[in-house]
Amino acid sequence: MSADDQKRISGEAAAELVEAGMVVGLGTGSTAAWFVKALAARKLDIRGVPTSEATANLARELGIPLATLDDVKSIDLTVDGADEVGPGLSLIKGGGAALLREKLVWEASKRCVVIADAAKKVDHLGKFPLPIEVVRFGHVHTGHRLADIAAEFELLPPRLRMAERGVVVTDGGNVIYDLPSGVIAEPAALGAALKTVTGVVDHGLFLDLADEALLGTDQGVVKLV
Ligand code: 5RP
């Protein structure tokens, strides 16, 4: 089965968790897009809270009624992809530059389900460079401070994320620095250190947030808790 098929079956399985009347957090990325499509096909009476402009546009096209995070008291269920799924359902997210809105929506959710293809499951976080969202003002200086923290954790310095058209700017108007880690031995300590830097808005370590994972594998969808 291709990675895309694995993403599709995990997204479809997650769509089955949604019940009428729910407020549903809609993740960002190619796996979350499969979830949004499968959810739209069920035509349930729900409201979706999108985690990015891209997901909002997709959901609107598919006829899913949307709410903002501030429109709702809480979110019943959020379904989102991940770049890595590590021990204890620790995650790296932000490959799609949506980590800030994603984390805000996850933290407002009663239940968070991560969906992914099998290759995303890892023994240690860090092979995927850790995305860090940084305010644009003075971001080069912030990048230097991040490099100092990286050195303390024996990691390589972070790199400003670029795309063909120039610097990547998030939906919140910030930039992303990617920290090429290798192995993140102490995710909680690294996350805490990154948050001490004023220019850092947030980082892509999602620790103690996921309640379960639905991994698409060649043998079908495998649930991790
Ligand atoms: C976006 C994310 C995505 O969920 C993550 O990058 C996984 O993407 P994909 O499902 O396309 O592999 O965190 O910020």
TrEMBL record:
Residues binding substrate: T28, G29, S30, T31, D80, G81, A82, D83, K93, G94, G95, G96, K120
Catalytic activity, reaction form: aldehydo-D-ribose 5-phosphate = D-ribulose 5-phosphate
EC number: 5.3.1.6
Gene3D superfamilies, per database record: 3.30.70.260, 3.40.50.1360
MF GO annotations: ribose-5-phosphate isomerase activity
Stored InterPro entries: NagB/RpiA_transferase-like, Ribose5P_isomerase_typA_subgr, Ribose5P_isomerase_type_A
Active-site residue list: E102
Keyword check for Lipoprotein: no
Keywords, comma-separated and alphabetical: Isomerase
Pathway recorded for this protein: Carbohydrate degradation; pentose phosphate pathway; D-ribose 5-phosphate from D-ribulose 5-phosphate (non-oxidative stage): step 1/1
Coiled coil stretches, renumbered: none
Function: Catalyzes the reversible conversion of ribose-5-phosphate to ribulose 5-phosphate.
Family membership: Belongs to the ribose 5-phosphate isomerase family.
Description of how the protein assembles with itself and partners: Homodimer.
HAMAP family recorded: Rib_5P_isom_A (MF_00170)
Name this polypeptide is given: Ribose-5-phosphate isomerase A
Origin species: Caulobacter rhizosphaerae
